[in-house]
Design goal:
This protein is an alpha/beta fold. It has helices spanning 16-28, 52-55, 62-74, 121-124, 161-169, 186-200, 249-257; strands at residues 2-7, 35-37, 77-86, 92-99, 105-110, 133-136, 148-152, 174-179, 203-208, 212-213, 216-217, 223-225, 231-234, 240-245. It has a single domain (2-263), classed as Nitrilase/N-carbamoyl-D-aminoacid amidohydrolase (4-Layer Sandwich). It is 24% helix and 26% strand. The strands form three sheets. The chain has a six-stranded mixed beta sheet. The protein has a six-stranded mixed beta sheet with strand order 6-7-8-9-12-13, with helices on one face. It has a two-stranded antiparallel sheet with strand order 10-11. A hairpin with a 5-residue loop joins strand 12 (223-225) and strand 13. Helix 1 (16-28) runs parallel beside helix 3. The longest helix is centred in the last third of the chain and has 15 residues, at 186-200. 49% of the residues are buried. Bound molecules: 2-oxoglutaric acid. Residues 46, 115, 155-156, 159, 180-182, 185, 188 line the site of 2-oxoglutaric acid (AKG).
Length: 278
Amino acid sequence: MRASLLQIAVNEDETVGARRERVASLVREQAGSDLVVLPELWPTGAFAYDLFEEYAETLDGPTVTAMAAAAAEASVWLHAGSVVERAPDGTLYNTSVVLGPDGGLRSSYRKIHRFGFDKGEAAMMGGGEEIVTVRLPGTGAGTGTDGTVAGLATCYDLRFPEQFRQLTDAGAELLVIPAGWPARRREHWTLLARARAVENQAYVLACCSAGTHGGVEQAGHSRIIDPWGEVIAEAGEDEQILTADLDLSRVAKTRADFPVLRDRVLGLPDPRPGARDA
Ligand SMILES: O=C(O)CCC(=O)C(=O)O
């Protein structure tokens, strides 16, 4: 599978509409890749809270429509990062969408762990309630059969390993993580993305924004990490396109050769009473 991560610069001197057109044209240029990935909330910026209401959209709104057309034109699977979704009851969600090579909506995922400690996204948005995997027919080790299973998570979710373990249990071989991670915690971004690859023995596609918006400089440093934890491609701090060829057969091979997932002890006992005081 050839994967391309588009580390988009999200700056305030570009309008949402202009960025949408620019990103659509970048997606169209990725013909030849199997899977293209965009960052979290790239239309507005993950920290541009004042734009969330104005640019909230349904999943047939302007961003998803433009991305669907671009995916179909390039004939690629497109993880279109996330958008501010307005649900029928008016609730806003940070929702990732996956579009097929024909432009059809194949899956969506509402970010479960909202960032902001009761402010920002955590105050403005509802939290997702579903663990989401999506099968990408025509890609990976299963090419020609049933394709790769991707597990979806977004930005702050990266800090919650239990979500990724559930994705692995649901069959994920590839973990796709769009983000708008702040530069001031870049070390956490790179460390945790690698940890999720090692502990789940899965490929990780971690796609962050670049630029600065809402007063928050973005971390960049998008990464493609293999199931052994090796970083096979890494971006710098500016807008960049990162492309790598993934050998999805390495997921099953790594899990068979070094079978830590098999060695899990499920249902660990409760802590021994009083152990803390011993
Ligand atoms: O966990 C972090 O440090 C950053 C998370 C974040 O920026 C987000 O989820 O939007």
